[in-house]
Amino acid sequence: MSTTTPPPQKAPNYPTTPFRPPAPGSPYPYTPASFTRLDSTPDSSFYSTPRFVTHIDDAAIARLRTYYAHNLPSRGRILDLCSSWVSHFPPSLEAAAAAKHTTTTQGGEKDNDDNNSGRGRERERGGEGNGLEVLGLGISSAELAANPLLHVRIPHDLNTSPSLPASSIGEGLLDATVCVVSIDYLTQPVEVLKSVLERTKQGGKLHLVISNRCFPTKVVGPWLRLGERERLELVAGYVWWAGWRGVEIVDVVEEEGDQREEGVMGKVRGWVGRGGGRGGGGDPLWVVRGVKTIEGERHEEL
Question: Is the pTM of this model over 0.90?
Fold first, then answer.
C-alpha cells in the first residue's frame, strides 16, 4: 500500500454572481410589516421540542462541507448562527476546533481566566490562537448542548432580540459567521446581520446557506411569494443593507435546468423540500456571502 500523501483537493469552481442593488443608496425597500408570518406564535413554543434531524439531504451536506473546507478559516473564531445539534463542518475544521482548548458551559460562559494575559489578549486580537473556536447561537438549548463542535453555546431568540448578546459572544472579534438554512425565519434579518457585522473583524466573512426546504408557517412573508432566484436576491439585499460588501450569490448545488419549476409549483416544491440538485439529485444549495470592509471602502461604494 502506498504511503504517499495525496495532493490537496482542488477548490471547486462554483458559479458566482456578484450582487449590488439597482439603487444602492436608496432606503431599505421592506418594512417590518413585510416580515409577518403565517404562524405568529412565539418561536420558543414552536421549537420547544428538539428536532434532531438534518434539514438538507446527505448530498447537499457533503457539498456544504466541501464549500466550508475551502472558504472558512481553520484558526480564529467562527459563529454558527441559528445553530443546532450539528454544524456540518468538514473533518479539517472539526480537528481545528478540537485543538482549541477552551472550557465553556451552557449559556455561553467561558473560562474565568479569559481576561488574564494569555487568553484575554488572544480574544482581543480576534481569536488568532491555537485552533478554532466555534460559537453556536440558537433557540434550542437541548440542540446546542448536543453539538460537540461548539465551545460556546448561546441560547437566544433573534426574533425577540436581534442583537447578538455581547456578554456571551465575548470581547474577541469574529473571523467568520455561517447560518445554515435559517435566514428565512428571521423577522428582523437586516438588524441581525448588522449586529454580526459589528462583532466581526475587518476582512471577516458572512456565509448564509440557503436551500428550498422550510417550515412554511414560520418563514417570513416574502419567502412564500418569491421564486428561488428572487429569494437569493432578497437575502443578498439583507446582506447589502446591513453594511456588508463584496456580496455574492454562490451556486453550490444548483438545480438542474430541466427540473427547475417557477410559479406556484416551484414554491410548493420548495416548501415540502423535494430535492432536485445537479450532480447526484441532492437538494439545491446556495450561499449568499459578504465581507466586512474598512469604513473608507464601505463609504466609497455607497
Answer: no
